[in-house]
Design brief:
With 542 residues, this protein is an alpha+beta fold. It has three domains: 217 residues, no CATH class; 168 residues, Sulfite Oxidase, Chain A, domain 2, CATH 3.90.420; 107 residues, Sandwich (Immunoglobulin-like). Helices cover 36% and strands 22% of the residues. The protein contains twelve helices and 20 strands. The strands form five sheets. It has a five-stranded mixed beta sheet. Strands 5, 6, 9, 10 and 11 form a five-stranded antiparallel beta sheet that branches. A hairpin with a 2-residue loop joins strand 9 and strand 10.
């Protein structure tokens, strides 16, 4: 094939790829528009993303959290978008070279989107309409654009062995050439392709982004949350003098809501109006109970200081935080239903389908402040932290206790039911391994020689921290000074005065709880039931 023919072939394949991209964009834009009108949960890209979150193997989940932290969902959406782009390019080229392969690919994508959407928790009967409408629009546009492109490409590009060939590399028939030469239809097809592609592409961007933004803002209950007035608590957390140390770089006693870690399976934050929220308590109970938000709040609110820890927190990691929570004890709600003998677990369910398996004793023990929280650090729960109601259970990792956007408590047994993360390689029961963390000085930040505080936090929820010890360059263990504990469910701050000398130094920290147990030294990965090990940090002193 001559050089000019190869250039023409590359040109038309590139235009076919563009047709595929624009058709995919129209697919998504129409789906988003229909979702806005009839079924907000019907977004294909979000449904596929949520499906990926559900099926991703445990090692990839660990990698995503360790690499991207709370931005893991943004990374997923970016990767998904790149995947859609590549698939759209392949679809357009396939339709150009071997029609109707591209249309078949779009139909398969639409079918997968429908399956991902209708199998999500809370999907409505109309949830399948957005991807169906988007698929039809995308297929019609792809067929139209590529048919015009193929007719444009039918103009002979070169001669191969005396035979005229077009930009697809196939021989053109004389009738096509004669028609193109006589009527100028090729120029019409070229103008039509360019015009429709430009209009469709621009419209898809405007409609798709606009519909997604409107879907988010109009379904947002941010305004409802801001206007929500909660009754004053019957009791408040007493913060003793000396509970917070004035040391630069140390974690504050109470983590601001904006800085509190977020790890969950929700690709987009659920929007739940407190007026329509319901909590169902069923399973192995004497009577089924259904509570409204007003019912729950009307039981009386108390304030609690509880530190939460994610099972994905590595040694020295940041996936933990402390807050003042306002809520109602879970045991009071369970009493209303009457727990039957033989039950040993409560399966809590989120509105997005996530489930957690919490030992029944952790929820019914009078000495444990397991609560249904409605406020965090003096304000209604932030949307991303479970508004309007979530569970907070001290002493257990979040994946077996801290269900956000709570909608159901099923009293059951570990033998009968399995929670979201259990079949994905995590333990069904997961008490927190108490630990300690060095906040300052940090690795990578040079420290000036001279008096330097070594400081951080330590936690042993439900038991409490007895002492923290620090070793410099593997020397003797030095006892740290602790802040005054708020309670045994709240982390404590600690510090050691250190006369830093120039050079490289290793700082190691460990804790002892009030039962006299020494923090586990042996390193363990986060799966299946949380990491362990003493934090050992390299510090440079100048």
């Amino acid at each position: 094939m001559a050089k000019s023919s190869r250039r023409a072939r590359v040109k038309f394949l590139s235009l076919a790829a563009l047709a595929g991209i624009v058709s995919a964009a129209v697919f998504l834009a129409v789906a988003e528009l229909v979702a806005l009108l009839v079924a907000r949960e019907g977004s294909p890209i979000l449904a596929i993303g949520s499906f990926i979150i559900d099926i991703v193997p445990q090692p990839f989940k660990e990698f995503a959290i360790a690499t991207f932290g709370e931005y893991d969902k943004i990374a997923l959406l970016a990767g998904l978008g790149l995947g859609v782009l590549v698939a759209a390019v392949v679809t357009g080229i396939a339709q150009f070279l071997r029609p109707p392969l591209g249309v078949i690919a779009l139909l398969i994508a639409g079918a997968l989107s429908v399956a991902a959407i209708v199998t999500r928790a809370g999907a409505t009967p109309l949830a399948a309409l957005p991807p169906i409408a988007g698929t039809l629009a995308g297929c019609i546009l792809l067929t139209f654009l590529v048919s015009r492109l193929r007719r444009w490409a039918a103009l002979p590009a070169t001669e191969v062995s005396g035979e005229a060939t077009d930009a697809t590399g196939q021989a053109t028939d004389q009738a096509s050439r004669d028609s193109a030469a006589a009527g100028g239809s090729t120029r019409v097809d070229r103008r039509m392709f360019i015009r429709v592609t430009s209009i469709a592409g621009a419209s898809a961007v405007l409609v798709g982004i606009g519909a997604r933004v409107l879907n988010t803002t109009t379904s947002s209950i941010a305004g409802v949350r801001r206007a929500l007035k909660l009754p004053a608590p019957r009791s408040s957390v007493a913060v003793p003098e000396g509970a917070e140390l004035d040391i630069e770089g140390i974690s504050p006693l109470f983590t601001p809501n904006s800085d509190f870690y977020r790890v969950d399976t929700a690709l987009t934050v659920p929007s739940i109006n407190p007026e329509t929220w319901r909590l169902v308590v069923d399973g192995m109970v004497d009577q089924r109970v259904e509570l409204t938000f007003d019912d729950l709040v009307g039981m009386g609110l108390d304030e609690y200081s509880i530190t939460l820890t994610c099972v994905s927190n590595e040694v020295g990691g940041k996936l933990l935080g402390n807050a003042k929570w306002l809520g109602v004890p879970v045991r009071e709600v369970l009493k209303m239903a009457g727990v039957q003998s033989g039950a040993d677990m409560v399966l809590s369910r989120s509105v997005d389908g996530f489930t957690a398996s919490t030992p029944l004793t952790s929820l019914t023990d009078d000495a444990t402040d397991a609560i249904l929280a409605v406020a965090m650090n003096g304000e209604p729960l932030p949307l991303e932290h479970g508004f309007p109601v979530r569970m907070v259970v001290p002493g257990l990792y979040g994946y077996v206790s801290a269900t956000k956007w709570l909608t159901e408590l099923k009293v059951t047994t570990f033998d009968a039911d399995e929670a979201y993360w259990t079949p994905r390689g995590y333990s069904a029961e997961a008490p927190i391994k108490f630990s300690s963390r060095l906040d300052t000085p940090r690795t990578g930040t040079a420290v000036a020689a001279g008096p330097t505080p070594v400081a951080g936090v330590a936690w042993a929820q439900t038991v409490g921290i007895e002492r923290v010890e620090v070793s410099i360059d593997d020397g003797e263990w030095r006892p740290a000074t602790l802040s005054t504990p708020v309670n045994d469910d709240t982390w404590v701050q600690w510090f050691v005065d250190w006369d830093a000398t120039p050079g490289s130094h290793f700082i190691t920290v460990r804790a002892v709880n009030k039962n006299g147990d020494l923090q586990i030294q042996e390193r363990a990965p986060i799966a299946p039931d949380g990491s362990s090990g003493w934090q050992r940090t390299l510090v440079q002193v100048t």
